[in-house]
């Protein structure tokens, strides 16, 4: 089953890691089973009625297979580590230097909905123009978005497959997530779901992400005056 289309700037690290792991696993499996099948044919009882210790050639083949697996493991580890560092290790200042000023949104998960808290036009939380959306996240295209995730009751998990994001949301702890979304041309919103079993209503804990161009986002932010949902 193919992955959902990637609309993030960082998702290629994850997609390529999965692709490399899949290809390597298939190749190693084919080599391993091929060697096992050849060994079963060559050392079958009818052909070799008595046990033999002369297996130097086969030992060499298995050593070569082990070396190949080690090389593949190194390639996977190096690529995955670089991708992990690019996605997880970068601090807020580093991200802002690379992508420009960020849009900050505080996300609160509760049974069974998502609350997205915006700081309003002044970009400062705790002022009169703050507002909240229930189960809807609106973000500008090609703009750094920083989410501060926390939970108000039990453990949840924020999963946005098109953005290659999946993070646990834990009560009493703030988890910071970043992304830069592309593809504002799509009219249909992208799904967000909870992927941590959190109660009987877990299946309906859904939200959407709307990616719009910067002009539409600015206009939407200016006209957004009502609070929707609950923090």
Explain this structure.
- This protein is an alpha+beta fold.
- The chain has two domains: 79 residues; 123 residues, Immunoglobulin-like (Sandwich).
- Helix content is 36%, strand content 26%.
- It contains four helices and ten strands, in the order H-H-H-E-E-E-E-E-E-E-E-E-E-H.
- The strands form two sheets. The chain has a five-stranded mixed sheet, covered by helices on one side. Strands 4-10-9-6-7 form a five-stranded mixed sheet, with helices on one face.
- A hairpin with a 4-residue loop joins strand 6 and strand 7.
- Helix 1 packs antiparallel against helix 2.
- The longest helix has 34 residues.
- The protein is elongated and about 90 Å long.
- The chain starts with 10 loop residues before the first helix and ends in an 8-residue tail after the last helix.
- The C terminus is likely disordered.
* Largest sheet report: 5 strands, mixed
Shape: elongated
Distance N terminus to C terminus? 37 Å
- The value of Rg in angstroms is 25 Å
Question: CATH homologous superfamily of the largest domain, by name?
Answer: Cupredoxins -  blue copper proteins
Q: How big a fraction of the residues is strand?
A: 25-35%
Q: Look up the CATH topology of the largest domain.
A: Immunoglobulin-like
């Amino acid at each position: 089953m193919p992955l959902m289309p990637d609309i993030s700037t960082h998702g290629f690290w994850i997609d390529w890691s999965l692709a490399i792991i899949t290809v390597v696993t298939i190749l190693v499996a084919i080599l391993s089973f091929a060697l096992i099948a050849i060994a079963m044919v060559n050392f079958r009882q009818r052909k070799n009625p008595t046990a033999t210790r002369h297996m130097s050639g086969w030992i060499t083949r298995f050593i070569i297979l082990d070396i190949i697996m080690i090389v593949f493991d190194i390639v996977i580890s190096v690529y995955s580590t670089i991708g992990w560092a690019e996605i997880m290790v970068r601090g807020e200042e580093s991200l802002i230097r690379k992508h420009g000023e960020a849009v900050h949104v505080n996300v609160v998960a509760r049974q069974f909905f998502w609350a997205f808290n915006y700081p309003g036009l002044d970009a400062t939380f705790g002022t009169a123009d703050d507002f909240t959306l229930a189960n809807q996240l609106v973000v500008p295209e090609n703009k750094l978005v920083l989410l501060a995730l926390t939970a108000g009751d039990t453990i949840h998990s924020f999963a946005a497959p098109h953005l290659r994001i999946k993070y646990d949301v834990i009560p009493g702890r703030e988890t910071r997530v970043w992304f830069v979304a592309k593809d504002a041309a799509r009219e249909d919103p992208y799904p967000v779901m909870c992927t941590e079993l959190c109660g009987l209503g877990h299946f309906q804990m859904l939200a959407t992400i709307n990616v719009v161009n910067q002009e539409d986002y600015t206009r939407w932010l200016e006209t957004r005056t009502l609070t929707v949902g609950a923090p």
